[in-house]
Design goal:
single chain, mainly alpha, two-stranded antiparallel sheet, 74% helix, 2% strand
């Protein structure tokens, strides 16, 4: 098999994988944490063994879906951080972006963060134990990079940026989880209160020379 044939096969496999992930997304949007491999295979019009062949196992499919949605969320958060406003407005825009994302697709959020032990059809659900930790760690590291690139935080700038990145993500996750479940306040009010909590040291930090503003 020559190089061009291998490229055609690779492109076809990548396209098929995207199609299967889109089918999985449709099931997750419908069933949330109760989504099952059986339902996803049926939605895609294939058998479950074929689904396993593309993703290895249930955890492989979960990781692929998690990466897909985390990539999209990180792009949204970066866009909010890049808005041409003052720093306080960018902080609030980023909090809004996160909360709007989980509010718009709550079933996806619950699937990623709170998978069921058993799916609706009796199949064992997507319960991996500690499943959300890698997602939150990735978000924390990405936010830490943005903070380190844009703010001058002194001699321990890199270490402090990682503390802030993971701390802010943890706060957003915990507050957003509680808010989505109970709706005790409006999104605007929650954003304002969280921004107030963050604002003291963020307001005092200087921008790095030549870096995009934060």
């Amino acid at each position: 098999m020559d190089t061009s044939q291998r490229q055609v096969q690779r492109t076809a496999a990548e396209q098929r994988r995207r199609e299967l992930l889109e089918a999985a997304d449709r099931v997750v949007l419908r069933d949330g944490p109760e989504a099952s491999m059986n339902a996803i295979a049926a939605e895609a019009g294939i058998t479950k063994p074929i689904l396993y062949r593309h993703f290895g196992d249930k955890s492989g499919l979960y990781r692929a879906l998690a990466k897909r949605h985390t990539d999209a969320l990180l792009a949204t958060l970066r866009a909010a951080l890049d808005k041409p406003n003052d720093r306080r407005d960018r902080v609030e825009a980023t909090l809004h972006a996160y909360l709007a994302a989980i509010e718009a697709r709550p079933q996806v959020y619950r699937f990623l963060m709170h998978p069921a032990e058993d799916a609706a059809d009796g199949e064992k659900g997507f319960d991996f134990g500690g499943h959300s930790a890698p997602l939150l760690r990735r978000m924390g590291e990405e936010l830490a990079k943005v903070i380190a690139e844009r703010l001058e935080l002194g001699p321990d700038s890199e270490a402090l940026a990682r503390v802030w990145g993971h701390g802010i993500v943890g706060m957003m996750h915990a507050a957003g989880d509680w808010w989505l479940a109970e709706r005790p306040t409006s999104r605007d009010e929650l954003v304002r209160h969280l921004a107030d909590l963050l604002w003291g040291r963020l307001a005092a930090a200087a921008d790095r020379p030549g870096a995009p503003a934060l």
